[in-house]
Amino acid sequence: MRNLFLSLLFTMVLLPATAQERVLFVGNSLTFYNDMPQLFEGIASDKGHEVEVQSYTIGGAGLAQLLPSDEVTRLIREERWDKVVLQPGTGESGGQSLSTAAMAQIIGQFIDMLHTTSPEAKVYLYEIGYGIPPGNGNGDYNYYLMAQGIIRDTVTRIARLAGVPFAPAGECFREHYATHHDLMLHSVFNDIHPNLAGSYLVACAIFETLFEEPVVPCRFHSTLDTSQAEYLQEVADRVVLPRREEWLMGPGEADDPDTVGISPVAQERLHIHPNPTTGLVHVDAATTEVLLFDLLGNKTRLDATGGLLDLRQCASGIYILQSGDRRQKLIITRP
């Protein structure tokens, strides 16, 4: 009887450790700001999930740099993980620095390494939110909506090729900014980094994606006002689970990635062809000067005399071409 009691006691002591889930976050400053993984842990704990989080972040880095690094390799080979959240860099999220196929290959190689030591571990991407360009000083929300749509398109393609779901944090941002032209989720214009409210919304979106349950109600608010935290929870609840197929969380086909994210500014499209292009583009510009933006916000002024643009000096990637108030997504590819 004494041995049985000791065995039961030993089992009870071990239960919390066995039930605890270990979650690793890999990303850059967008993950690091406001200690977003700790916000996620606070939400998960309040919702009844025992989680232990750890993060590895380098400012300005992308997954192409982070995943093959010695530190990430060590973390994967020496420790056990239940869930891993990967945050692509800004250039990777916009298809600027690497092709979606190359990104998916890097993620696939990481997953193979992860599963040698944590065979049941699940991997998720984190779709980042874009910053609000200043425009005329009050914010260019049309540009923001299109840029955020391009990020979503790109992350969707990467996730499909890699065979993983993604947390639609950026779509939660767009849910707010589509109707509220303020800076609730950012501190200043032209800064992609979220403020505390923005990081809390990211954490809500990641919680719903990883655990597939609503975040409302949640009593963990960090230092946010109760009304603000509850509003952000409701935004995540409207975006994540009701549209779970779009985030590749379950069965069914997501929307066509070539059209996702364009409708909010469809009335302002600029007609360009061919698109994708290898360099020469015909455009129905209202003036001879057009603007070319990359997804990092860099602007180039171009001469569209005769309705023809020569973009052969531009790197492969996704851009936004603007003439007056009209804009359109442009993909530049190289043979």
Keyword list:
alpha/beta; five-stranded parallel β-sheet; Rossmann fold; four-stranded antiparallel β-sheet; single chain
Describe what is shown at a glance.
This protein has helices at residues 2-19, 29-32, 36-46, 63-66, 70-78, 90-93, 100-117, 141-162, 169-177, 196-211, 226-239; strands at residues 21-27, 51-57, 83-86, 122-126, 166-167, 272-273, 280-283, 289-294, 299-303, 308-310, 317-323, 326-332. With 335 residues, the chain is of the alpha/beta class. It has two domains: 11-247, SGNH hydrolase (Rossmann fold, 3-Layer(aba) Sandwich), CATH 3.40.50.1110; 269-332, no CATH class.
Per-chain topology:
Layout (H helix, E strand, L loop, with lengths): L1 H18 L1 E7 L1 H4 L3 H11 L4 E7 L5 H4 L3 H9 L4 E4 L3 H4 L6 H18 L4 E5 L14 H22 L3 E2 L1 H9 L18 H16 L14 H14 L32 E2 L6 E4 L5 E6 L4 E5 L4 E3 L6 E7 L2 E7 L3
CATH class of the largest domain equals Alpha Beta
Q: Secondary-structure element order, as H and E? A: HEHHEHHEHHEHEHHHEEEEEEE
* Alpha plus pi helix count: 11
Query: Quick one: how many beta strands?
Result: 12
Q: What is the strand content?
A: 15-25%
Find the structural class using helix and strand composition: alpha/beta
Which term fits the overall shape? globular
- CATH topology (fold) name of the largest domain: Rossmann fold
Radius of gyration: 22 Å
Q: What's the CATH superfamily of the largest domain, by name? A: SGNH hydrolase
Spans of 5+ residues with little confidence (pLDDT < 50)? Answer: 8-18, 252-267
Which bin fits the share of residues in helices? 25-40%
Biggest sheet record: 5 strands, parallel
CATH architecture descriptor text of the largest domain: 3-Layer(aba) Sandwich
Overall pLDDT metric: 88
| Count of distinct structural domains | 2
